[in-house]
Write a sequence for this structure.
């Protein structure tokens, strides 16, 4: 039987560079239908964590050598408890993430990363220090630069069809090595349609939990809209949000970079994350905005009303779409989207 | 001529408009399961009653749940946009449309020209819809068209605490067994619908004048309960069920004008 080659993780505070340097493939866990976890986890727990619980109960969990969790939120700690109760967890590593960005906090996190690196080494025997870590950090840095370019272009609202391609790549990120990801991103950027956008193409912003809902973005792009997507949940913060500045100590550089990224919504003051969302929103000029609100997500629920009011005050119509498990084929959801587009002046063709 | 067809979950409606936006004919039929056949028969019926040949139709817009099942429609537009346009024609200057259909209910905020500004809809639960009333009327053994009269005779309003149609039905059986008057129960049911729709409206900024459309608008008791809940009077057009099809026909007219404009 082949040794599992993947290390699963949920939190964006887990440096994938360390996992890759130890010879494993970092895999961001997505999970399956949250209904499968009924009875195991409270129904009003974070929907993303619930989905990951169902994933690890099935066959997919056996492909993992280990899972790295963080203590950054209670749902994740509850997940850890669940796996311990059920005894289905592969080797588990808990990364403690400080909530502050002080030098002391960075130092603390550096020690946590050192501990994680040693744990990974004991699993694989492969990681042996900076000489393995350095090229991996450089690979990820190049990939992230490309991701940032793609994200900036998408947010400019000046090209068609980029949002669905970009979010699909981010969605599938765990399947590819950094080199493969770079290739995909380069292909995406090379193929963007920079032709003149007619005035009738509405420019739409999709916010909330947009990156987990590529199907919605595809529906919007098919209608002729130019879509920009921002996401404050796990996916949208990957890649673009970590900027490693290599200094004397690589682990310190990683610790600084990962702590300096826009924090998980649960790790920061609600007003800070709202301010960041609004700043991203203001990068483009939009004809309309949609907020994808996952059920039972407290941070998103906090954001929604002030964000919506801010946009309305600037005259941008907003549609809120509440979703469970992102089933965008439901007729009622499609009707809402179509009605919103019609109100922006686009008429759907039969 | 311009044809608007609204294929709802329970009933299909068709409206024929002339180029002066006057209703020349209209018809309603149960939607059934074969929408294509239903629509063909409906269109035949409306053309025959109006004495108009099919070739006179310049454009057709389909709307409603089954809007994509109309093969000859030039456009498919959501019922939200169509009810908004229809209501604006029926009551010029109205700003809020409350539509309660067979299986969904919605509140639509519009500008003074019928353009949709915002909306809220319930399409996942039968409570607050025509289906809710149908089920309860059946349980009470009361014809739907007598509910208004019964409600007027009520001495009090029975409290229906369940928000689910299935549980509300059980609750009503219990109320009847407990000696509650049918009149009081009917009034309680109407209030229950008003509460549900009121919740939809509270997510928006509904403004008067308000128009009610959809088949449930024919139930005076529900209209009264809604007026109390919304604290505004509701204008109910003569044939509220066809507002969506009317709006679709209006859009057909506008789209045709756009196409022929030099």
């Amino acid at each position: 039987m082949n040794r599992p080659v993947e290390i699963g993780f949920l939190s964006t505070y887990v440096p994938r560079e360390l996992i890759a340097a130890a010879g494993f493939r970092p895999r961001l866990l997505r999970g399956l239908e949250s209904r499968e976890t009924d009875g195991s986890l409270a129904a009003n727990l974070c929907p993303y964590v619930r989905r990951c619980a169902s994933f690890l109960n099935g066959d997919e969990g056996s492909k993992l050598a280990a899972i790295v969790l963080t203590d950054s939120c209670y749902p994740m700690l509850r997940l850890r408890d669940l796996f311990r109760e059920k005894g289905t967890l592969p080797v588990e590593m808990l990364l403690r993430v400080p909530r502050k960005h002080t030098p002391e906090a960075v130092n603390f996190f550096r020690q946590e990363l050192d501990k994680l690196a040693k744990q990974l080494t004991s699993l694989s025997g492969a990681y042996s220090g900076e000489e393995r870590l350095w090229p991996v950090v450089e690979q990820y840095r190049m990939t992230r630069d490309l991701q940032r370019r793609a994200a900036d272009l998408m947010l400019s609202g000046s090209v068609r069809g980029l949002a669905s391609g970009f979010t699909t790549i981010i969605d599938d990120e765990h399947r590819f090595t950094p080199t493969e990801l770079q290739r995909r991103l380069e292909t995406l950027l090379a193929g963007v349609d920079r032709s003149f956008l007619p005035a009738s193409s509405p420019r739409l912003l999709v916010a909330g939990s947009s990156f987990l809902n590529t199907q919605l973005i595809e529906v919007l792009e098919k209608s002729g809209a130019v879509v920009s997507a921002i996401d404050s949940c796990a996916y949208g913060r990957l890649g673009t949000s970590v900027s490693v500045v290599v200094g004397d100590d690589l682990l310190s550089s990683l610790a600084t970079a990962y702590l300096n990224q826009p924090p998980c919504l649960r790790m920061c003051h609600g007003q800070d994350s709202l301010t960041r969302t609004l700043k991203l929103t203001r990068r483009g000029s939009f004809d309309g905005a949609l907020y994808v609100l996952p059920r039972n997500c407290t941070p998103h629920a906090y954001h929604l009303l002030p964000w919506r009011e801010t946009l309305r005050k600037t005259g941008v119509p907003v549609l809120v779409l509440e979703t469970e498990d992102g089933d965008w084929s439901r007729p009622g959801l499609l009707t809402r989207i179509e009605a919103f587009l019609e109100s922006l002046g686009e008429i759907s063709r039969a | 001529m311009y044809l608007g067809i609204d294929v709802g979950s329970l009933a299909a409606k068709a409206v024929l408009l002339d180029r002066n936006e006057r209703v020349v004919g209209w018809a309603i039929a149960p939607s059934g399961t074969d929408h294509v056949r239903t629509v063909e028969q409906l269109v035949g019926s409306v053309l025959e009653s109006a004495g108009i040949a099919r070739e006179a139709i310049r454009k057709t817009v389909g709307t409603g749940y089954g809007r994509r099942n109309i093969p000859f429609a030039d456009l498919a537009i959501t019922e939200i946009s169509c009810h908004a346009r229809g209501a604006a024609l029926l009551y010029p200057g109205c700003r809020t449309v409350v539509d309660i259909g067979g299986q969904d209910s919605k509140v639509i905020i519009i500008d003074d020209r019928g353009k949709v500004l915002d909306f809220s809809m319930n399409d996942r639960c039968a409570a607050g819809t025509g289906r809710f009333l149908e089920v309860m009327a059946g349980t009470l053994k009361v014809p739907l068209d007598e509910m208004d009269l019964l409600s007027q005779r009520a001495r009090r309003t029975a409290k229906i605490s369940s928000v689910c149609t299935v549980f509300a039905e059980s609750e009503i059986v219990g109320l009847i067994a407990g000696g509650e008057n049918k009149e009081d129960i009917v009034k309680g049911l109407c209030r229950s619908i008003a509460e549900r729709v009121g919740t939809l409206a509270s997510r928006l900024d509904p403004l008067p004048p308000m128009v009610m459309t959809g088949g449930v608008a024919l139930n005076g008791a529900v209209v009264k309960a809604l007026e109390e809940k919304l604290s505004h009077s509701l204008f109910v057009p003569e044939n509220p069920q066809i507002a969506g099809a009317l709006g679709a026909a209006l859009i057909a007219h506008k789209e045709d004008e756009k196409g022929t404009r030099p």
Q: What stands out?
A: Chain A touches chain B through 13 residues (CB under 8 Å).
